[in-house]
TrEMBL record:
Species, as recorded: Monosporascus ibericus
PITH domain segment(s): 132-327
Entry's family note: Belongs to the thioredoxin family.
InterPro entries found in the cross-reference section: Galactose-bd-like_sf (IPR008979), PITH_dom (IPR010400), PITH_dom_sf (IPR037047), Thioredoxin-like_sf (IPR036249), Thioredoxin_CS (IPR017937), Thioredoxin_domain (IPR013766)
Domain Thioredoxin, chain residue ranges per copy: 1-111
Protein name, per record: Thioredoxin domain-containing protein
UniProt-listed PROSITE patterns: PITH (PS51532), THIOREDOXIN_1 (PS00194), THIOREDOXIN_2 (PS51352)
GO cellular component: cytoplasm
Entry keywords, A to Z: Disulfide bond
Amino acid sequence: MAKPLEIQTVEQFSNLLKSSRIVVADFYANWCGPCKQIAPIYEQLARSLSRPNVATFVKINTEAEGCKALAAEYNVTALPTFIIYRDGSVVEKIKGANPQQLKTVVEKLSNDIQSAGEGGSGSGSNGGLAWRGADLPRGYTDISDSVDVRGLELLNADTDFSVRTLFNKDKPTALDKGKTSSTKKDWVESDTDEQLMLFTPFNSSVKLHTLQITSLPPADEEDDEEVPMRPKTIRLYTNRPHNLGFDEAEDIQPTQEIEIGENDWNSNGTATLSLRFVRFQNITTLVVFVVDGDGDGEKVRIDRIRLIGESGEKREMGKLEKIGDEPGE
């Protein structure tokens, strides 16, 4: 077990993200009182959970010459800020000296750290991190947990499938070798035609940066059933009080329309769709309208959806601030 490693340069940190499966970073400053208060707790967690090349805990002084660029790159605007990385991508960000929140989030990694040390992938059902089909853009996190799954609504979906499956944290069974698609229907398909209309409410206001859609239709027909298509044209509508009807959506200007090309799908069957970030601020609901599929079929299939951005409080740009101190202190 080891105490936190003090990062000296951007290059050192970049190399660490490549060599250690999980990295937990404490962004701090010497003048920050709350940073000093939580430091012993962070060190205790580091000593108990560090594993060579598996889980590394580091401290990054945001005022050190070699580290100022890291604070800017990962949008650190308040101190302390704790960021958790897996395989080089941000998966969690905690602002403020909240010992209980830090303990809860970091200790939640314990099973995942053990799994990573044994060569496992750490699935959501094991208490580890959620599966993702593609890397996250730097500085942003997977905020799919901000979705209020109780309010999800999916129009024109085949009744054999559950809408909550779209935000399942586990790896899609279609990617598990040796398992057939009939083992578990952990995806959704459209019903009477290729269109789908998904209404997604959030527990709090969010900022959306990227939409990741995973679609894994079988390569060949199974049981003489028609093979579904991947989505092609997606229209997004924000802050609607309820789901849209298909005719209604045709008469409303979308916040953004995206056409997914064949080359946009990676080896995991995931397309990473960049959003016009300025249009997706303070979002409370998102409607995803799948207009058509990428072929001549009559059904569309979606296995997973991941929402990338920021959740919680509004980001205040400018000078770094201490969280927990009163103004004027």
